[in-house]
Amino acid sequence: MAKLIGNTDFIDMPVFIKGKVRDVYDLGDKLLIIVTDRISAFDVIFPNLIPNKGKVLNSISEFWFNYTSDIIGNHMITTDVSKYPSGLSKFKEELQGRSMLVNKVDMVKAECIVRGYLEGSGLKEYNNTGSICQIKLPSGLKQADKLPEPIFTPSTKENEGHDINVSIEGLSDKIGVELATQLRDASIALYNKVSAYAESKGLILADTKFEFGMFNGKLVVADEMFTPDSSRFWDKNEYEPGRAQKSFDKQYLREYLESITWDKQPPAPVLPEEIVEKTASKYMDAYERITGKKI
Ligand SMILES: Nc1ncnc2c1ncn2[C@@H]1O[C@H](COP(=O)(O)OP(=O)(O)OP(=O)(O)O)[C@@H](O)[C@H]1O
Ligand SMILES: [Mg+2]
User: Fold this and answer.
1) Does the predicted model carry a pTM greater than 0.90?
2) Which amino acid residue places its CA nearest to atom 27 of ligand 1?
3) What are phi and psi of 210, to 5 degrees?
4) I need a surface site. Which of 68, 163, 212, 272 has the fewest CB within 10 A?
């Protein structure tokens, strides 16, 4: 079986950022994004690694970057390690499949969220105000209901504390009306194309988050794209509005964590082998359904 990767300290290059799941290295005008097999839930990283998770997430992003490049360009250069800058080729075994060389871009300080269904923070805001990001919605919608049309509900990236939901006008005040409109139009077009494709594979794309950046004067998609980590995917066969839907990938883990006495504060408990295996197979299942390929 392929090697599990939980840390990337073997890479002797400056760190750009280490997130909960991804380790990003700074190559000057490029970045090397490595997706590890780490898993987090409730913002806490677990001691177990999930077999193939890094490859699955990386390959899903790669698939969507290719699939959507007719709508908008993106930061991806290659996932072929032999084309990475020299010095990295000796890590081919560790990096192939789970990493991506990308152009470093000037990130737009906005989280671009599109919602096609009512869930998460959108549901909370709707229940309190009848709107999301000042977009008025019909009354009487239930949890997980499909919205009349997909809506753009951005939030501003705050360096400290939580992101703040804003209206398109609020976003325009921060970054200019032209760029805000471009972000909205691109986000909605991306959601429409990908949600139609996902449906044909038996998956509902409830909502998703993009990050964009400027590269050579053009707006491009950066970060990750339509992964289970940045999107809510539901199984179409089990969809039933009026209740919480089972998340496609992390459901077993979340249900298990609710069933044990853990206060959701670090340190995270060691997961039983069964939970690790089921989670791994769900990630694989998502990958196979989306790409039609096996890892
Ligand atoms: N092409 C790019 N150029 C510049 N910055 C990028 C590019 N792609 C992604 N980024 C930035 O790299 C960072 C990746 O961090 P990552 O998402 O792994 O960790 P995090 O957001 O800090 O934590 P979490 O694990 O909760 O997501 C983000 O801040 C993202 O905006
Ligand atoms: Mg992130």
Assistant:
1) yes
2) 19
3) -115, 155
4) 272
Cα–Cα distance, 32 to 16 (Å, whole number): 9
Are residues 182 and 192 in contact, defined by beta-carbon separation less than 8 angstroms?
A: no
Average pLDDT of the chain is 95
Q: What is the mean pLDDT of residues 200-221?
A: 97
The number of the ligand 1 atom at minimal distance from the alpha carbon of 16 is 12
Closest ligand 1 atom to residue 21 Cα is 25
* Cα–Cα distance, 218 to 229 (Å, whole number): 26
- With a CB cutoff of 8 Å and minimum separation 6, the contacts of 65 are 74, 76, 221, 225
Ligand 1 near 41 CB (within 6 A):
no
Indicate if the pLDDT at residue 186 is higher than 70: yes
**Any alpha helices (H) in 78-167, and if so which ranges?**
92-95, 120-129
**All structural domains of the chain:** 1-104 (3.30.200.20), 107-238 (3.30.470.20)
* Residue 110: closest CA among 177, 169, 175, 207: 175
Q: Which of 40, 107, 162 has the most ligand 1 atoms within 8 A of CB, as the residue to mutate?
A: 107
Model pLDDT for residues 236-278, shown as the tens digit of each residue:
999 999 999 988 888 889 889 999 999 999 999 999 999 999 9
The verdict on the CB of residue 211 being under 6 Å from ligand 1 is: yes
